[in-house]
Amino acid sequence: MHAGARMNFGPLSRFTGTPPVLGFGAWAVGGSGWGSSGQNDAVAREAAVRHAADRGITWFDTAPTYGNGASEMLLGRVLRERREAIAIATKVGPRDDPRTSLEASLRRLGSEYVDLLQLHEALPGWEAQLEQLHELQERGKARAIGLCNATHLQIQRATEIAPIVTYQGAYNLFDRDAEEREIPTCQQQGLGFLAYRPLASGLLSGKYSASPPTFVPGDHRSAIYWFKGAEFARRQQVIERLRPVAQRAGLTLAALALAWVYSRPGVNIVLAGARTVEQVDQNLRGATRLEPDIVRSIDAIVAAQFVPARATPTAHAAAATWGERERFIVARLDGRMRYETIAAEWTDRGDKPMIAAQVKVFVDRLAEQGFIV
């Protein structure tokens, strides 16, 4: 066991710092899970990776599951000649053997090491997996190790198990769970925070109309709750109100959304995906800090659309017969408490974690039954 986290990035310091670094999230270039993919698309995806490196992006984040290894192979093929100038981060699945997984990743990447090896998700048994990641680091297969998609309690525990240097979690101007516990924990423990999904899986590109989109079979976005129903409508209203803010800032909507993440305290790397050269350039335009008044405008627009709900007396009475999680949520629907705070307070208990999305979906069901003022 290795107590305590490193208070710096060690070998990663040349790729991180202040201000944050714009990284390349390489899920979409894996060619699956993001709509149709063909030969022309493959050419564009390869060009996007090459263009990103040409434009000075030095951080590329991938995983074995991105295109069933296709993302790693693409990065290995395109970046091999400039390997020492590039940082490549990959992951180990929550049910995979770390050594077997990493060896396969290294073959696909055509590299003897990765700069950062991350546990993709903290499921039961994750502690033993993390210890194995550290063993691989000691063998020189990974320069550093990190954790993804975990609770703040798991992050704290991880620092007692191995010398992790980073935590990676979802974060954008809509989805702010990380602000409650994960980012503060990273700051307290001296860990770098890697923000993925900064454009809410493309929603913040502003390319969707007033109607929920229909995705082709196999596109992972078809299962995301904010691309359907009441949540899609709420987010679209925010997006329309953000357009003049973006114009005032001299940015596209997507660049504004990225710049918002780039401007947040505690963020070290913003992982933005791209499938085309044009999207890479768009992401680079968002690698800037916003003026404080622009940030306040964005936050006010989001807050006005997502006002915390207040449960009716009838809801409180009915909740007495519901499950513990449901009672916990209803007791806190006072018209003031943010859904992220409700979820964080439940997660503090150490039981099955909760995120704000679950609270929102539950509140929508309550509203349909007349249980919300």
Overview features:
373 residues; alpha/beta; TIM Barrel; eight-stranded parallel beta barrel; 15 helices; 8 strands; disordered N terminus
Describe the fold and architecture.
The protein is of the alpha/beta class. The chain has two domains: 10-292, TIM Barrel (Alpha-Beta Barrel); 313-368, no CATH class. Helix content is 44%, strand content 10%. It has 15 helices and eight strands. It has helices at 39-54, 70-79, 98-109, 126-138, 152-161, 177-180, 182-189, 229-249, 253-262, 277-285, 292-305, 313-319, 324-331, 339-347, 356-368, and strands at 21-25, 59-61, 87-92, 116-119, 145-148, 166-170, 192-196, 269-273. The chain has an eight-stranded parallel barrel with strand order 1-2-3-4-5-6-7-8, surrounded by five helices. α5 (152-161) links the parallel β5 and β6. The radius of gyration is 21 Å and the shape is globular. The termini are far apart. Mean pLDDT is 94; it is low at 1-8.
A few lines on this structure:
By secondary structure, this protein is an alpha/beta fold.
Basic shape: globular
Q: What is the CATH T-level topology of the largest domain?
A: TIM Barrel
Helix content bin? 40-55%
- Tell me the structural class: alpha/beta
Strand content: 5-15%
Number of helices: 15
Instruction: Please identify which CATH superfamily of the largest domain we are dealing with.
Output: NADP-dependent oxidoreductase domain
Number of domains: 2
The sequence of SSEs as H and E is EHEHEHEHEHEHHEHHEHHHHHH
CATH hierarchy, class of the largest domain:
Alpha Beta
Question: Could you give the distance between the termini?
Answer: 51 Å
